[in-house]
Amino acid sequence: SLYRKRNYVAVVISIFCVLTVVALVLTGQIDALDVVLERKGSQLFSGRCVRSPEDAANIIRDFIGDSDRERFVVLGLSTKNEPTVLQVVHTGSINASIVHPREVMKVLLLSNSCSAIISHNHPSNDCTPSPEDISITERLVEAGQIIGVDVMDHIVLGSDKFLSMKEKGYI
Description:
Blueprint: H1 2-26, H2 53-64, E1 71-77, E2 83-91, H3 101-110, E3 115-121, H4 131-147, E4 150-157, E5 162-164
Parallel strand pairs: 3-4
Antiparallel strand pairs: 1-2, 1-3, 4-5
Helix pairs in contact: 3-4
């Protein structure tokens, strides 16, 4: 997918830059090294805004593709509903993915997200939420309330369809 290709290029460029700086330090061409961390908006999401469950489902589907195992993903959003982070927090088996709220909330806190949409795929293509899906959704909504991150929706993805747990009344 386009996301994976861009992500790969960004990683290669980042590794090259780090190796170049390390080489300059080791050869004595740089006496002191100051590292400045700067948060920049991701160009992968430039101009993208999540206005509906369908928008979120499309972004997440492009990211995880057709997987033969369940992948639990968190999509962090800014105050303007622009993506701040998109990360797989757990890869499960063919019919289960066990995720802990601390893993989801850690990603959201580190990316300064104010809200989130959580999602996972069902390789079976049956988007009906399981009792475990409902339970983890309730736990993540509660955890988000405690730390001030609004879990807006939980989207269950099939290969060609999706289900919004908010639209179905689970949230």
